[in-house]
Amino acid sequence: MSKKIGILTGGGDCPGLNPAIRGCVYAAEKYGCQCVGLTDGWKGLVEGLTMPLNKDLVEYVIGKGGTILGTSRTNPFKKEENVKSCLENFKKLDLHALVAMGGEDTLGVAARFYKEYKLNVVGVPKTMDNDLNATDYTFGFDTAATKAMEAAEALIDTGRSHRRVMVLEVMGRHAGWVALFTAIAASADYVCIPEKKTNPADIVARIKEVYARKHFALVVTSEASELEEAGENAAMRELDQFGHLILRDRGMGERIAGFIEKQTGIETRSAVIGHMQRGGSPTLFDRMLATRVGVKAAQLVRDGKFGMMSALVGNTIVGVSLEKATGELKTVSKDWLELMEVLF
Ligand code: F6P
Fold it and tell me: Does residue 235 surpass a pLDDT of 50?
């Protein structure tokens, strides 16, 4: 009988998950394995929730956003009995291996299952935040940043017409990649990212100078940036199952807009693109990257290389250890900060 590979997608969804599932299923079948979908992330393995997966079912999902498997932010390691259920269901479902597609949290769970329970697990890197270590890019990022860039350009049109300062808040959690790429690609005038605290005097001086020249300005901020003056309150400290701050109610765009208006006297508006940047059809880049890392995951299973993740290094897809990939976050690096200094 052919070996069975379970596939799950966990954490925040992003465009590219469906092409990655498709790539993995195509390759698995080519190597004589069959696949089964575990629905809603790790919750699927905890509860034994499955759906059929085969070439016919995934043939045309390459252009579809989201994930056909569903997702959740379930962390089985929160409860010992859930870890036990995962191990039991792995056996019950007669899985030879599990391919987990996710970011730092989902793959952190995969790394623990491999390290602590020797489970045959392979990872596929995804996240619109692009903050996963050991891979040059994650799919989902290109689509999300492209959507945010288009939103920023729309704000330029309306801001210029009304002679306003416009502030766009984008997601990206604790990494400023989405904000930085959006700001560069849309010719913004200022960018706020979590890796560098926004200096109040600096942003005010810059906006005044830009506004005097063109009677309009665009600021792009990450949801997790910090303005030295703004401060946090207790309501802003809600955590998810992986212990991450839930950032949606932080209102960074609005706070920066309020600050600019107060300090400069210039009419300012803010907009939040939010989850819209995470949905929709994946770009060509994301379809290709996702397909390649999905195929590689099945190859890692075929070759018995468990505890590994498929990764983009240069223009080659390679296997890297899950432990390395989830050991630390990849935030905006020194060379990118230097580029940022030049452009803003
Ligand atoms: O990690 C992906 C991400 O989109 C972050 O950029 C954002 O902070 C978070 O997910 C939002 O999570 P949720 O979809 O649970 O609101």
Answer: no
